[in-house]
Amino acid sequence: MTTFVWTINALSTLPQVDGQSDVVVNSTYTVTGTENGIVSSVQGMQQFTYTGGAFTPFDQLTQDQVVGWVQAALTQQGIDNLYAAIQGRIVYLANPPPVPAPQPLPWVA
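User: That's the sequence. What structure does it adopt?
Assistant: Structure tokens below.
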């Protein structure tokens, strides 16, 4: 079974939005899958739009909170697509296809 780990790599902010300071508007992330020692990752970027309401000051944000934002923006379908891409790469790495080997031409002595 593949284990997936989400990591937030960077956040970008706007200085002011709707009276709030340092509002996160962009996140880059990595999703890493590991199975039987084989690792594959996908990187992505997600934009956000603050429209008022609940707000966490920038210096109080946690990685889990921002991962939650990214996952909510991606929807379950997007998350499933990322996991499938990572899983497919792990399967490929675990069972690589044979590599063609060049052969001397039989009619050349």
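The chain has one domain: 3-94.
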